[in-house]
């Protein structure tokens, strides 16, 4: 390679103010291998790029060095220009004589000499550059959506409506997530079931969507465009094709007193159950831990009454393997459990409940058919206290963040309570009201003004029971911090929104990172909120951080369009600056000795083991091989490989060695 | 040694310190011209032999800088680099190579000021230490050897 | 076995019965309490309001003296002293420069290798596993365990029991055969240092505590801090005046409760020194049935360190 | 000693192994490694106090490997070498038959890596006090004194690479010294080339050296090479809690990390 072009830019006078560009062009023009060198006022401008392209063609250049601004700024521009002139873009390098030289040094010879050094470094480097082609990776145009809440449902429908296949996996017997547990939703108070159920049915009936409920993802391998996923379909002890969902078994089952997870302990269900009336699929599941047959070996009532003989007691779990090109995580969040609040008596006093339990009380299909009744004695509470920020914004409890949705659903709870108990008095202890969404503030004002909810600005210090009443001790900071004591009949804690149990293990299974609170980590909080650092895996909804329904739906549609973009062409193109393990002819095959240090160091699991077999199938050597679809080009393996068997395009040992030599030996 | 202008090479990672140096530029913060930057994708890519080559070819001082822990674009590159430097510094110190001439630092893409400080302080320190005699002696005696500069 | 002992001013003054009961209890379990020679005042709350170095040097000197004697564990029955020594050890460990400054101030070598134990930690470490077999007279009374503040706060440093709903003393009382009732004023403030300057406040705050205990038919209140004891016991006339109700529930130290349970008599435990008469009715001695708590006890709180 | 000969003979005759690496009589009172492949040759096997060479150095040599299934008479250093090589996927469990020479001349057979690990927990594996003193002496010197000391030592190096051949951990068939694009390590044995080579060798053995001392024994110019790698053993153990050759599934110290690795030099 000996026909290099050097193009020194003035950048108006950002560079030429302190660097003698003509001199730099002249001096570097005399370097061995430089065929053509010039300087120009605006290299990145159209005429500048035309000058570059003409020079490439005219002087048949096979290497270009543009001395101008930071490569982080215009490397793509000049590489594209080179490509248009027929020169492989990866034979074009930039040396940063603006940010790293002209802008930070005074106008003197030392600055110009430094610019010459920086250009010489890149001239020497370019000689070692190789022409590279972008990497093509095939894409399986099927998406996997993990989680069947509103976020998962929205993402799945959006992707499916783009004409792509979707596989949805939901851990519980029915999709719907937390939204199906809600009574009415802020700020418009429309009934949660009415707006959710049609979407759930749409999922079940959509030709592009395959739904696996009562199932969990067991393993995820492969990479963007080529994920191989194992799904464990837990046995429902039921043949879903025969079952018509008539529900006879659920009424006849002798087990009646099993706490229903869907009702968060306020309602009960039989051993063979459908979590809630509008469940999708509307077919029962046998809870093997509590079913008499599985405990004592006798009963089988459901089998006897079943008109279509669909009960299968000996049905095994089934592990199926599917392929997907992209994964959308939509596993949602959970509400903080009880053993966090001994001071509020949560879990000690039956009438201290959490927000989701209040939703079940207020829900028409709930245990009390929508009437607000105390769990202890079923009385209608005349005085009710809502405690906001129960666990959120509380470093002592290890949860420093604000859970975002509690102010709104607490205001909604107070409003629903007043609509159902007209002579009741609701109190809300709060620190700050965060009602930033559309029509949110008006909603909160309404519950204060029209429904007469007493908002007390202060925290509750302790709640204890005394002769049948719950004594709520707090302070009213707006009244100078005077202590306040309310004898309430019932207390609702707006507990913190936390990551789902098992979120950490799932993140490790899927190879995405998560934060200290076990919420999944987005690639960039502002610019890539629905992507993760793992290519091809996206986030939708509250699994990334506590969110309300509008945000979850928006994020889900965002994730869906990312997937659609991924599937928009048959192949994925990626920058070829990836690692590669050298290969040689038999019998050596490679300098690699199979110590696999590189494999243990690679953050992207991009290094695989390749077994070199003889004709008789016997393994001769096991060598490292880089999967160029996964490798992100960090180069940590290259620095660690003792035999220098692995190298990386763009920053190869040759290139880096030559840069140092050129820089220090002028 | 006031008129001694040290040769200092800086090995930096592309995502944090290189961008930080860019920010130093856009903020027009002046710093000494003795330091010249070589870009790497990540500090994890910086092989210990690169530092040896720098000293052998006349560098009086070296700066190695990358992303703060947990900021690494590749999530673990800087952690691996840190372990490598802990061991390598031990070895250099034991063999009598002056580790004060190597400055390790974390500089993020937002720390334009910090990059200027790192460069200026390092230049000042190397000026006090003077040229790296030990290595130059060895380097000179081998000049006639096959080790030319940019051989074709 | 030998355990370091730091009495502090109250053990020699207003709370002499606390020291008598702790020593008697230790003798029963043949533990030798080695009082730290030439110990000095821990500075209590007064010091750290005035001067930081002083508030760290006083406890540092105590621990340095103990280290010089080769003492490892130090039992500090008074909650205020326990709090000051623990906080000092924590702050000096976190700031080596401050540590060397304090070491030069007290002109003693300080390494911070001693283990500071409050009375409950001391009992749990040295006595609890041998307690039940030594109980001869089960403390069969409805007992309200009062923890106060300095025993459990600041949790990030002390890391002792649960801050909001502590259970450690309740467990001990149950092991001694008592019925530790569930009440709401376990960690409410008793008025502490206001005892002299604002006795009316102490009357109100301690009054509320006594009122809740009385309403729940508690027969005795158990404490582990001389300050709590003096406010709830010595200030009882003012409390009764505030509540205009006569409450004669006695206030005992946890060491006295266990002392009685293992058969020590009132005199050795210093029960005669109390302001509120301690005449607990004799209860028929039934075998030390541990009454099951009426409500499901909430599991200990999972607080990440 | 003869019960070992009987055992080796029986192993060879019923083909459990094809070659047994043991000690034979060397010149004067020295011992040297011998490769026993037939019953008669087994008679030459000896064992005495000065049979201290770490025979694991031969396990991965091409000339030995292609002889078939290997058996080895291992001392503590060899056991540790086997575990370290196993952790680097060079030897599989059960691939090598290991006889361990007890000090009293009897031998025990270790059937799997797990039993080797168990045994090693009970024995002393640190460097000798003599070596510790020499390192301490060097560490007491000033930086420039150490530079002069080591340069005088490296000046003697004739680049015969005997140290590389003797070391069980140097099993790469193309070493970095053989890389000429780019020429990381100068071929000539001038001062700088030697310094590059020995720094590279020490870094490549950091966290892997089982302090068997064969490199120093093999060096014709008596350069105290082992001190370079020994000096790194304690900082790596203190910093990362890792010791070479103690677990067959250990992860190499420099290929993993802890988010809070302690250091005091990064600003």
Give descriptors for this structure.
heterotetramer; C: 305 residues; alpha/beta; Glutathione S-transferase Yfyf (Class Pi), Chain A, domain 2; four-stranded parallel sheet; 15 helices; 47% helix; 9% strand; globular; D: 267 residues; five-stranded mixed sheet; 11 helices; 10% strand
Give a description of the structure.
The complex is a heterotetramer of chains A (666), B (152), C (305) and D (267). In chain A, the strands form 12 sheets. Chain A has a 5-stranded parallel sheet with strand order 10-7-6-18-29. Chain A has a 5-stranded parallel sheet with strand order 20-27-21-22-23. The longest helix of chain A has 20 residues, at 109-128. The radius of gyration of chain A is 33 Å and the shape is globular. Chain A starts with a strand and ends with a helix. In chain A, α6 (150-161) crosses α7 (192-205) and α6 (150-161) runs parallel beside α15. With 666 residues, chain A is α/β, with parallel strands linked by helices. Chain A folds into 5 domains: 4-132, Rossmann fold, CATH 3.40.50; 142-234 and 317-330 and 501-567, FAD/NAD(P)-binding domain (3-Layer(bba) Sandwich); 248-305, no CATH class; 334-498, FAD/NAD(P)-binding domain; 579-649, Alpha-Beta Plaits. Chain B has a 4-stranded parallel sheet with strand order 2-1-3-4, sandwiched between helices. Chain B has helices spanning 17-26, 48-56, 77-94, 112-129, 133-141, and strands spanning 8-13, 35-40, 61-66, 102-106. Chain B has 152 residues and is α/β, with parallel strands linked by helices. The N and C termini of chain B lie far apart (37 Å). Chain B is globular, with a radius of gyration of 16 Å. Mean pLDDT of chain B is 87; it is low at 141-152. Chain C has 2 domains: 2-119, Up-down Bundle (Glutathione S-transferase Yfyf (Class Pi), Chain A, domain 2), CATH 1.20.1050.140; 132-273, Rossmann fold (3-Layer(aba) Sandwich). Chain C contains 15 helices and 8 strands. In chain C, the strands form 2 sheets. In chain C, strands 2-1-3-4 form a 4-stranded parallel sheet, sandwiched between helices. Chain C has a 4-stranded parallel sheet with strand order 6-5-7-8, with helices on both faces. Chain C starts with a strand and ends in a 44-residue tail after the last helix. Helices cover 41% and strands 10% of the residues of chain D. Chain D has 2 domains: 2-120, no CATH class; 129-245, no CATH class. Chain D contains 11 helices and 5 strands; from the N terminus they run αββααβαββααααααα. Chain D is α/β, with parallel strands linked by helices. Chains in contact: A-B, A-C, A-D, B-D. Chains A and B meet through α3, α4, α5, α17 and α18 of A and α1, β2, α2 and α3 of B.
